[in-house]
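re: ur question from yesterday

yeah so i grabbed the chain u mentioned. its 159 aa long if i counted rite. heres the sequnce exactly as i have it in my notes:
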Amino acid sequence: MPKDTPVTLAVIIGAHGVTGEVRLKVFAEDLKPYKSFNNGTLTLKSLRHGSNGEIARIAEVNDRNAAEALRGTELTVPRSALPPLEEGEYYHADLLGLPAVSTTGEGLGRIVAIDDFGAGDVIEIERPDGKRFMVPMNPDAVPEWDEERMIVSAAFVSA
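ran it thru and got these structure tokens back, copy pasting raw so excuse formatting
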């Protein structure tokens, strides 16, 4: 993924109160290191935990109407702003769209989703015919991946 590609860290899901705070659905472990979103158009002033998610104050939002108008807005940062990864780690944004190939060399399709049902990430691959299948993101099922492709063990490939 190019280093300037926007990566979504949160989405505004509604207003909170009357002073312009917004409720967020957060996809990152921690939003606090980031102060500027959406190419500098939104500035995070404060962040706190609320009873139904994170509550943020955005400098450019001063009342409930402005907060409501932002419902559905994704908060993005450039890929280059994310912390470096350790060996074996990945960002979902880097895997989405990658071609998947089996260990036998068969083209399988593209990665279209990454889910976590509680036991670790599951990769969803869409075949060229539109059919989808899932594989666990572990070394047995996915022995190798890089920025060009993901290799999936043939034993985990469904017909």
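noticed a couple things. The chain has a mean pLDDT of 92. also The chain is about 5% helix and 45% strand.
anyway ttyl
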